[in-house]
Amino acid sequence: MSVRSPLNDPLDLLEVPADVPAEERAIQQTVRDVLADHARPVIADCFENHRFPRELVPRLGELGVLGMHLDGYGCAGSSALAYGLACMELEAVDSGLRSFVSVQGSLSMFSLHRFGSEEQKQEWLPQLAKGAAIGCFGLTEPDAGSDPSGIRTRAERRGGDWVLRGSKTWITNGGIADVATVWATTEDGVRGFVVPRGTPGFVTRDITGKLSLRASVTSELFFDDVRLPDSAVLPGAKGLRAPLTCLDEARFGIVFGAVGAARDALQAALAYADSRVQFGRPVSGFQLTQRKLAGMTVELSTALLLALHLARLKDADRLRPEQISAGKLHNVRTAVEIARESRTILGGNGISGEYSPLRHANNLESVLTYEGTEEVHTLVVGAALTGLQSFR
Question: Which residue range(s) make up the domain with 250?
Answer without folding.
Answer: 242-386
